[in-house]
Design a protein that fits this description.
The protein is of the alpha+beta class and 280 residues long. It is built from five helices and 16 strands. The termini are far apart.
Length: 280
């Protein structure tokens, strides 16, 4: 009787362990045919394929022509994004040149990804570190720096970080009309609306919409030497002992202006100045 009880307890223990193992391991041995077909159609040369799921998506890790790739699909087999690990020297020449000319050129390069996403431009993400600082730099293929993100230092960046926040289609009509030829790089849902990162006229621009999809503002970096002298003079007159640090150009439905950031030691101030030199 005791022996039977022992084997019964042993069986229950093994079963519980197996169930726990399945819960902790998201790797999949059986994948719906819709997923395998989608992968085969998009990447017919894929080898060493391993599937897992995360956040409701099916994820395929595989190799293709020497590249290590990770592709994300919906349960229906609709491709969403592919992340490919590449070397810095594999980046487009324009991206390499732009990075070497940037303020991050002396930082240590930790990782480089090529990110392809549904209905969006290809983006190249360079992870750099300096001491305890960590940054992720998003470049378009033509070398335009579209976004800078501060790292948290809590682990690797990628995969779900690159998932499109929302379909970009609802903003296309406005963007095509106001910024002809704009290329959409990123769409994110924010607390009070949406932020769409675009490349237009060779610049990275952030376009903000409210929760109803109405345009709120557009902002992009400008070099200090691009700011009209009348604008700089007006800002300097407000803070004569401060020096210029940074500048943005801002468009809203009711106004356009330069947002000038100035500093004196540890103190920073921002001044809004219209193109004719009027301080707002």
């Amino acid at each position: 009787m005791k022996l039977k009880m022992f084997f019964a307890m042993l069986t229950l223990g093994v079963s519980a362990w197996m169930l726990q193992s399945c819960d902790d391991d998201d790797d999949l041995s059986v994948v719906p045919v819709e997923l395998t077909d989608s992968l085969s159609k998009k990447y017919p040369q894929a080898t060493r394929v391993e599937w897992e799921n995360d956040r409701g998506y099916y994820i395929a890790d595989f190799y293709e022509n020497g590249w290590e790739r990770t592709a994300w699909f919906t349960p229906e087999g609709i491709w969403q994004l592919t992340e490919t690990e590449i070397r810095f020297t594999d980046l487009p020449d324009a991206v390499q040149t732009a990075f070497r000319a940037s303020t991050y050129a002396t930082w240590e390069i930790e990782d480089v990804d090529m990110v392809e996403r549904l209905e969006m431009e290809v983006v190249y993400v360079i992870e750099v570190e300096q001491y305890s600082q960590e940054m992720y730099l998003y470049y378009a293929a033509d070398g335009v720096l579209v976004r800078e993100e501060t790292g948290t230092g809590e682990g690797s960046h990628g995969g779900s970080d690159y998932l499109p926040g929302i379909n970009s289609g609802q903003f296309s009509d406005f963007l095509n009309e106001r910024y002809p030829g704009a290329r959409i790089i990123e769409v994110d849902r924010e607390a009070n609306g949406y932020e769409v990162d675009i490349v237009h006229d060779g610049r990275g621009k952030e376009v903000a919409f409210d929760l109803e999809g109405a345009w709120m503002s557009s902002t992009w970096d400008v070099r200090i030497n691009e700011v009209p002298e009348v604008v700089k003079a007006a800002a300097q007159a407000q803070y004569p002992d401060y020096r210029f640090d940074d500048a943005d150009f801002v468009e809203t439905p009711t106004a356009s202006y330069y947002l000038i950031e100035m500093e004196q030691g540890e103190r920073d101030v921002k001044v809004k100045v219209s193109a004719d030199g009027t301080v707002l």
